[in-house]
Structures are given as structure tokens and as C-alpha cells.
Amino acid sequence: MADIAEEAGPRQRPRVEGGREEEILDATVEVVAELGYDRLTMDAVATAAKASKATLYRRWSTKAELVVDAISRAKGCPVPEDVDTGSLRGDLICLSCGEGGFTSEMPMSVMAGLLTALHRDSDLKKAFKERFIGPRIAVVNRIYQRAVERGEIAADVDVDLLSQTLPAVLIHHAFILGNEPTDDLVLRVIDNVILPAARGSQAS
Which residues bind DNA (predicted)? Predict the structure, then answer.
């Protein structure tokens, strides 16, 4: 019971009144994009949001809690709605090139600010996976499941691996090669990698 209470504790902390909470969260996202997670401090967020540190700590007990709450609810990084265009290709394009997708400035700049810290900060990593990545993976899983049901994906294809391919390539281009993800790159990966692999033995 103690473990459950500890996990539920942060969610029960009092919300900031009025529209100030959204303003603080927006300011947090901007500071993450500008400074990165490692250099972000509660002082910096308080200054950007024109709020007191006391206000921040009453609502968010740690930096990780504040940052994950902010990016999970940010206007520029919305959790995608369930996408169903009728084809795997259409779904992946809609998901990756729409608002909050890989070609949007805000999600990629936020990811850049978090990337190194995710390897070292266990609290940030756990919260990020549960609250930011988790809902997005759920949408992708539904997309691929419907593709299986439509017969677009061969029975022998590793769907788990396939679903990670597009984000892996785009993140590699962005953070390893230094190339901004574009709609054209998304289409190249989908048409030359994802769809051929998805057809598997059906293509022979």
C-alpha cells in the first residue's frame, strides 16, 4: 500500500489556479528546448513563467516531474489521436508529418533537450516512457494491428521491430547526422523500407 501511495502522491499535489499552470508548462517546454534538461533549473522556469519557485514546488516536487508534465501536455507536442486513413502508408504519413510529428519543430527540439539526460536520469526516463512515449506507442500499435487485420502486413513480419524503424531512422538523421527531418525523408523511409519489409514473404 505504501508503494501505491508514493506513486499516486505527485498526481495529487494541488494544481496551480487559473491559467497559470498552462503558462508555467509552456514556459518549461521553451526552457527545455532552449537550454536542455541538464541546464534547466526551477529558477530558470520560474523566471520564464514569471512565477515563484514556491509555486512550482507546491505543484511539482522534482524537475523531472515538471518537465514530463510539461512536454506531455504541450500544445506543440499533442498525443496523436487514433489515426485510421485506411492504409498503413497513409496512417504513417499522417502520424509522422502532422502536428506533433517528426517533422514538427517543437517535438524534435524538446527531444534534443532531453536526449542525453534520458540515459542518466532514471526518474526522467521512467516518467518519459510512461507519460510521453507510452501513449504514442499505443497509437502506433493500433495502426500496425489494423494493417495486420487488413492483410497489409505478412504474418511472419516482426511488427514490434518494424514499428520502431521509422522513428529510429528519423532520430538518427536529426541527432547523429544533423539533418532536419522532412516530409520527403518520411516518405522515402515508408516507401523504401517500411512497406517492403511489411510485405515480407508476400512480396516473393
Answer: 41-60
